[in-house]
Amino acid sequence: MRTLFLLAVCLFAFSLIRAQTTAGFENLGLLPGDYTIDAGSAGHFESGNLSLPNHYNSNWMVWDGWAVSAKADTLTPGYINETSAIAGGGQGGSTAFAVSFVVGASIMKLTGAATGSPVAGMYVTNNTYAYLSMRDGDMFAKKFGGITGNDPDYFLLTVKKYLSGQLGQDSVDFYLADFRFPDNAQDYIVRDWTWLDLSPLGNADSLQFTLSSSDVGAFGMNTPAYFCIDGVVTQDMVSGVSGPLETAALPLYPNPATDFVRISLPDSGAPVQVSVWDATGDLIREDVLQAYERVVRLEMLSPGIYFVRVLQDGQPFVGKVIKR
């Protein structure tokens, strides 16, 4: 029985791990040095289970939202180099990546099996235009740190989620540049592809990206409002899971959760066996809850995705929970 118990949960956990999709933008067929700021009549770019809205004005040949690029120019300053990544290409040696020019906010829509599920995360780096502007200053924006290097400048990317038309209150912040340290030697501007964990946001239909900066003038932010992404991993929904013990879905709330989740099953009056597994399929702990207990404690766990398995009256139930 214990062998079947472990096998059923592991099959469930690993089926969810296999149900991940990575958007790397290579499917758009860009050659090194190519880029496109016009998605045409579609009005969006697609990769993996993502749709990236693009707003292109053919009269003025300007755009906002998202573009896709394979430009690796890390040296040319200014607006003419708005579609390069300072990392010198895509993440992990790939060619293509996506660039966002944020006017107010940029939206990333989840499609297909990813709709309503968490986004595990993505790689982020600076756009070359923004990076060189912050490093050296230009005719519109200041050099970060100022003349002395002591100015507490920053360039911040903030990510929130939409679910069922509602904008979530929680956010994930990522500093594309941070000069607020007492020791100037710790100041930095992101130059490499860096993983950004978005799982704390929980289930989402789309993500909202906004930018803010310490360098603000009469007309708003002076820092060029660009950033680059690659390797976006979506946690795709599985329509149904079966295993040797015919595992059923387990309702859990609140979800995402911070300190605990409640098991939402009819009370049979008998104790239930509970186990918690991490996203790699490793057993974290096991317990037996009495009939009056319906709470699984999470406060000692690190943020991430976990699976809770309950065995009640011989019937196994498994649910996914996001620990914040």
List keywords for this structure.
324 residues; Jelly Rolls; mainly beta; disordered N terminus; 2 domains; elongated; five-stranded mixed sheet
Task: Report on this structure.
It is a single chain. This protein has 324 residues and is mainly β. The chain has two domains: 20-235, Sandwich (Jelly Rolls); 246-323, Immunoglobulin-like (Sandwich). 8% of the residues lie in helices and 41% in strands. It contains two helices and 25 strands. The protein has helices at residues 2-18, 128-136, and strands spanning 20-23, 35-36, 44-47, 50-57, 62-69, 97-101, 106-110, 119-125, 154-163, 166-167, 172-178, 188-189, 194-197, 206-213, 216-217, 220-221, 226-235, 248-249, 252-253, 260-263, 272-278, 283-289, 295-297, 304-312, 315-323. The strands form four sheets. It has a 15-stranded antiparallel β-sheet that branches. Strands 18-25-24-21-22 form a five-stranded mixed β-sheet, with helices on one face. A hairpin with a 4-residue loop joins strand 4 and strand 5. Residues 1-18 and 238-246 have low confidence and may be disordered.
**Span from first to last CA?**
33 Å
Domain unit count: 2
Structural category is mainly beta
CATH architecture of the largest domain: Sandwich
CATH-defined topology of the largest domain: Jelly Rolls
The CATH class of the largest domain is Mainly Beta
> Number of DSSP helices?
2
